[in-house]
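Quick one before lunch.
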Amino acid sequence: MVIAVDRAKRKLQHIEYALATGQHRLHGFEDVTFVHNSLPNISTAHIDLQTTIGELSLRSPIFINAMTGGGGEQTAKINEQLAYAAKQCGIAMAVGSQMAALKDERERSSFTVIRKVNKHGLVFANLGSEATVELAKRAIDMIEANAIQIHLNVVQELVMPEGDRDFCGALSRIEQIVSAVDVPVIVKEVGFGMSKETARKLEQIGICAVDVGGFGGTNFAQIENERRKQPLTYFNEWGMTTTVSIAEVATTTERLSIIGSGGVQHALDVAKCIALGASAVGMAGYMLRFLIEKGVEALIEEIERLHNDLTLIMTALGTPTVADLQNAPLVITGKTHHWLRERGID
Ligand code: FNR
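Model of the FNR complex:
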């Protein structure tokens, strides 16, 4: 099975190059400043981190975003440890693309291990937009998923030498999945951001949430370019930052839950995503690096620290709930401000 071996190798290369290329902090969070509140009239004991993504109820807005799977024993181990950390900290977790495991039975264990470790936690399935209804149902069943993420990654595919070149029909396939599966469908980008035009189309077909997957953190153009003999360097700078993506989607859609992600590394980034309009925040590259470099117990401590820091930030702002934090006053400057003005978004 040459194809399966190549796919497994690619998954491991993604991890290696994601760690090597790192997080760039080009996400635009430095353009967002909270208005200080000297009279928050609140105690840390009042802070409640609970939130929702559509009909799903989450104990924390922070979750582990889609990463690994389908790369053999090594990715199975990573998934097992991520699932353990998610369980210990009571946070949700998305798995990486399950396409490999749908095509090759032997890859299933790197996903099914998640439910062995974390029986009752919130877990999101993951497939690309080439997925059919039947594949989506199988991916959900494989891990008894509470929701399914469908990822959009056109630029990544184009940079990947063996990647897809035909992106026709994605919206209509997603629409069919929405009407056929009985869990919420989340559509996500993978680090190139999302525009208001895209979000509006997705809202019209009835999806429950978008994950903006903004530019500025893990860079999949750069990762795939590492695997090319002749890099397509012009795609390395391609994409919309996390801040402009959240603001674009938040100001133009009414019903969608928004997930902020792309380069999120600490609790202040999380708070800024929420204040821009997100109800949950995904972290991928940062969680992976922490796990690989420091181990699972250190990752658990780090997630607890993130929760503690977010509690302190919400106290400083006088916003006891995630819904209150969404309305915290802030000022947007710099490139983010310029972008939003050019796009007619205030
Ligand atoms: C990813 N990401 C990803 N996304 C997805 O929808 N399906 C997938 O299979 C993968 N695989 C994957 C592997 C690795 C090693 C990394 C680091 C990431 C993308 C991820 O979910 C996220 O959208 C981006 O990484 C941007 O977020 P961060 O990393 O900047 O927090």
